[in-house]
Amino acid sequence: MDDIDKVTWGGLNADDRRFYNIAVYSLTLPTIAAAIYWWPETQTIHFVLFALMWVLTQFGISIGYHRYFTHRSFKCKPWFAYLLMILGTMSLTGGLLQWVRTHRAHHRFVDKPGDPHSPIAGPYKNIILNFFHSHFLWLLTNFQPNTELDAADRRLLEKVSHSSVAWKPMPYFVVVLLGMLIPGIIAGFVTQTWSGALLGILWGGLLRSVFMRNGEVSVNSICHVFGQKTYETDDNSRDNWFCAIIALGEGWHNTHHKFPYSARQGLKWWQIDLSYCVIYSFEKFDVIWDVKLPAKSQLRNNADA
Questions:
Q1: Which of 4, 20, 197, 295 shows the smallest number of beta carbons within 10 Å?
Q2: What is the total count of domains within the chain?
């Protein structure tokens, strides 16, 4: 990659990214309506594929895009890194490079001007509009992170820049399409009908992406307004149990902002973090190593409660 600073979302410029997100969100209501309309024909395999694809693609974001590629919370085998990248790409939340840059901008300017999706420092005077801006409206703008990549970011992105999935438009969309077709193929094989296959695409692909995308962006919106401030930080981040469930551990957001490098975001025994459970499990098989966690002394010194 000749000029990695200029790489934008999935190899597309800001306008292309905006039109892509508009197209994706315009499918939300038709997708929900189709699922309701064809509910009588829906079979168990479609619910299974919905759950399976949701969990896998959410792990691609929470473990891959977020904790590995953005915060370098652990090291792992190259094949595992690429698997995480593929799963994250299938989620329909955008390409890896732009995701990393946007999230780094969020941490650098959190709840201040320059934060791409803050309900506190949004572009509107109305708090409700700012909430929806942080949830999804910011994706429909031509936003570009207004921060230069530091040396560590550059090395991280260059590490994966040779993968065509990470930045070239066509391979990105091929992976996205596979994320839709695979559940359709499985459902068609199980049901032995074309209608079953199409419902597999609907439930395992489209509806799954609607649920997963909204679960992910809820961390941007809900977790900066509602929840518990477990640790003292210079922002409005909150720990929210509901978001932790639907985003598989990402909802412990105040804890994450206090210890952004930590591979575990649910640090208390009752804070369920399924993404960390996966990291912990793969660490036992030497697929993952050098897992970063805050020291016990840091937890004692920083806890509000």
A1: 295
A2: 1
